[in-house]
Amino acid sequence: MFKKILIANRGEIALRIIRTCREMGIKTVAIYSTADRESLHVRFADEAVCIGPPSSALSYLNIPQIMATAEITNADAIHPGYGFLAENADFAEVCTEYGIKFIGPSPDQIRKMGDKITAKDTMIKAGVPVVPGSDGLIKDLKQGIKTAKETGFPVILKATAGGGGKGMRVVWDEDGFQEAWEKARQEAKASFANDGIYVEKFIEEPRHIEIQIAGDQQGNVCHLSERDCSIQRRHQKLVEESPSPFMTPALRKKMGAAAIKAGKAINYEGVGTVEFLVDKHRNFYFMEMNTRIQVEHTVTEEVIDHDLIKEQIKIAAGEPISGKNYIPQMHAIECRINAEDPFNDFRPSPGVITSFHSSKGHGVRVDTHVYAGYSVPPYYDSMIAKLICRAQTREECITKMARALDEFIVEGIKTTVPFHQQLMRDESFRNGDFHTGFLQTFEMEKPEK
Ligand code: MV4
Question: What's the pTM?
């Protein structure tokens, strides 16, 4: 087992990793930017090294600086968390060159899933269902229109280097194709320095349901059931839950088997997530694979009662997984508490938290790095806490979440708490009747004063 892990991240996930390391008897090294001096991950790690100024490019993305810190502190592994360098194949490669274990998949596995056409092609070969569309990249406008007509409108244009919605364009008919094609290429080029585009049939009102998997160095892959992440705003998830209210035992069996096929196809090592679009007839299609621990891993932890960070570390150290699939035994929901103003188009709201009280009580979990007096820096992701509730049934879980939100107090900055309070009372949400477009029509009720 590792003796010392450097955590190449910040915020709640850095703290989350430190907690598991502590329980496993592994020492931790935190890295931090000058903007994060007062963050709890700095205080709770065994060692902490300031690695640069606030800008991510000069701190949390600064590979030479991070590797130098790992060497100086004698870390034998690096945990990348999510975001920052978590899906950077070059970083994983550098770690290997330094003889430091990257806690996650191999550079090759990251690359295979990072390029969306390569990923899709790998899935087709593995027998995982994908959305019908072009066979690889579209070369020019003429071929694009031809493919779109063969696929049948509406279609969606996607960037092969994309993910998370950037460079995507929906096209409803032949007349709209040229403009969408040009815009998608421009956006992809500007965002990813890669203007490769492919075409897919546009699935209307899909749900986003993802399957958590784990694979070990011995070649075993298992699934840990699903999370429903359909409640998103501009491709930012706000609420995740497990099990999905749309799931059936038969669908879980099929999607679980498909996710395992996906993992086995790339010899996947580590925990990862296979994302699917699910249409109203419960047809499901591979969308992308995330080769990292995700923000919402906590809902899975709650329903199967396993520490997924511990699982990651054990796999990285060469220990085999149990090999059995896990089915939710409870219901869990996560609300992302962001420093954003939900009454003002979710505008970021950084600044000093003057008062802070997090929800407590039976079935309530709060993962956060903030406290009263903490100043939320404007430089990074706006998520300041994750509120996770667990109960026997979905209905009880929603009731518990509403109660927990009512006692979540943050003063000094605006947060997404009021949004979640209103969502938990929404009839369609309560009925599990929603898809990825749900928040486009959800209207926030303004406060009276
Ligand atoms: C789609 C789709 C409909 N049809 N692909 C959005 C992010 C990127 N991962 C893929 N996305 C979508 N791909 C086809 N063929 C609809 C979306 C989509 C979406 C997916 C998941 C969660 C939220 C979404 C919001 C808008 C569009």
Answer: 0.97
